[in-house]
Amino acid sequence: MTNAYTLAAHADGRGNPMFRFAAPQAFFPLAGKMIPWFAMLAAVFAAAGLYVSFFVAPTDFQQGESYRVIFIHVAAAWMSMFLYVVMAIWAAIGLVLNTRLSGMMASAIAPTGAMFTFVALWTGALWGKPTWGTWWVWDARLTSELILLFLYLGFIALTTAIDDPRRADRAGAVLAIVGVINVPIIYFSVKWWNTLHQGASVSLTKAPSMAATMFAGMILVALAAWMYSIVTALWRVRSIILERERNALWVRERGGEA
């Protein structure tokens, strides 16, 4: 006879060996094992990327040394968009399949995404002052990136304002899914409207329009940001799991420790 526990187990993936890590109880120790490896990769990529970006890459013939902020700016901008899409995917999975871990993952990703969005805007302003002569203009890409920050902050505020975690996850999922339409707007804004931003220097369909060392530095810093994002999401989701599952037997058996 099917009971409520069996339904919950199947919803969380515990009823299918292929999806056994979809259950918070199973994912918790796995996340703990992955964190040190991704942290090490983040440190290695960051050290290599920053060295290449600030000591190896040549000086730009037009912008001088001030252009080097792009190595941080571009990586942060890429991650701000990528993390929102990943957050929306996790939220959608939770909304459709009613899996608890999915909502937790979406909540764990949001603060890091918001941080990268803020860094992208801040470094963009630092780059814009010597390049455009102003800290801020209502450029299409700047404006849509600012909207992305508001979407992240709105998601965080909405999910923390609702006491019931399952209701909070569903409400946040709706906002995340609706807001994901802003990501292609950010990406294609330089093509759709006349903006101060230049076109993409890196494309999947053609060679990068920059020196090889500049490209290498940009990719290394982006990889560091990616590894860092994984570390923070895994670390944060473990905290969320402990908080939400604090009354579960397996958490009590661990003594509530991470």
How helix-rich are the residues, as a percent range?
Answer: over 70%
Q: Provide the succession of SSEs.
A: HHHHHHHHH
| Total strand segments | 0
The coarse silhouette is globular
Question: Which runs of at least 5 residues are low in confidence (pLDDT < 50)?
Answer: 1-11
Largest sheet: none
Radius of gyration: 21 Å
Label the structural class.
mainly alpha
Instruction: Tell me the β content.
Output: under 5%
H/I helix tally:
9
Number of structural units classed as domains: 1
* Separation, N- and C-terminal Cα atoms: 35 Å
Overall pLDDT metric: 83
What does this protein look like?
By secondary structure, this protein is mainly alpha-helical. The protein has one domain (24-253). Helices cover 73% and strands 0% of the residues. The protein has 9 helices and no strands. It has helices at residues 4-11, 24-56, 70-97, 100-132, 140-161, 165-179, 182-192, 212-244, 249-253. The chain is globular. The chain starts with a helix and ends in a 5-residue tail after the last helix. Mean pLDDT is 83; it is low at 1-11.
Structural key phrases:
258 residues; mainly alpha; globular
Short note summarizing the structure:
The protein has helices at 4-11, 24-56, 70-97, 100-132, 140-161, 165-179, 182-192, 212-244, 249-253.
Layout: helices, strands, pairs:
Blueprint: H1 4-11, H2 24-56, H3 70-97, H4 100-132, H5 140-161, H6 165-179, H7 182-192, H8 212-244, H9 249-253
